[in-house]
Amino acid sequence: MSEQINPPQTQDHQPGRETEMHPKPEYMPRYPGSGRLADKVAIITGGDSGIGRAAAVLFAREGAQVALVYLEETEDAAITADAVKREGREALLLRGDVADKAFCEAVVGQVIENFGKLDVVVNNAAEQHPQEELGDISPEQLRETFETNFFGYVYLTQAALPYLQEGAAIINTTSITAYRGSPSLVDYASTKGAIVAFTRSLSAQLAEKNIRVNAVAPGPIWTPLIPATFPADKVAEFGASQPLKRPGQPNEVAPSYLFLACEDSSYITGQVLHPNGGEVING
């Protein structure tokens, strides 16, 4: 049995609330900004908490205005917006379900109306529901998981593309499970595999426009999705099996998004970064 890393805890609603976690995930950037996203505008789905929150605050520190798309976690979203504002940038809060194509179109419309442009799209919202047997995955669960985790990425990107100019960046959140699988998260891992293929295919389609499309495949990261997914004993030992013997913190993942969003990665497209605590992944 793995050793306890965090206190046992669960939440009964996805995608979970950061306000209810203990200890709280670490999301503040670790270093001063250097203007790498100066005057840029970014959309981040799942931007209220976890990796999305950490990326939003880091983007703001580097000079970006940020639109935070979230499902219903109003308190978490307000905390993230306040953190963005403390970095001297504007945060636009947009509540709704990315599985709704019309909502994704409305998000982009409001971003253009508010900021006048769009430079970076971070598709990050996700849900996951463990099932030990394939037959236990209901049609409703399968549909909802794909609609949030994959269809939402396509819908938002479709809505954003008419406004993205040369040099823009699209960043998709996939997962370590896309590469090594997950026996209890078959449908979730499948959506993350689809995201890898989506990233590679779209990068080829948009290369001639100099719009870069990349992805990040986090390993076990301490976010609200974890206590909202697993039983308390599994949450307590979450991340202990990784080579670094712990889960990652959101602010250890956010720099991967910054790198892919800014000009530091101007010769990188169709690729996936792997902040996963040391697990070697072929992909």
From TrEMBL:
Keyword Isomerase found: no
Domain Ketoreductase as annotated: residue spans: 40-225
Record keywords, A-Z: Oxidoreductase
Family: Belongs to the short-chain dehydrogenases/reductases (SDR) family.
Biased composition annotated in UniProt, kind: Polar residues: 1-13
Domain of life from the UniProt record: Bacteria
Entry GO MF terms: oxidoreductase activity, acting on CH-OH group of donors
Ranges of compositional bias, category Basic and acidic residues: 14-27
Region (Disordered): 1-32
InterPro entries named in the record: KR_dom, NAD(P)-bd_dom_sf, Sc_DH/Rdtase_CS, SDR_fam
SMART domains for this protein: PKS_KR
A Pfam entry, by short name: adh_short_C2
Official protein name in the record: NAD(P)-dependent dehydrogenase, short-chain alcohol dehydrogenase family
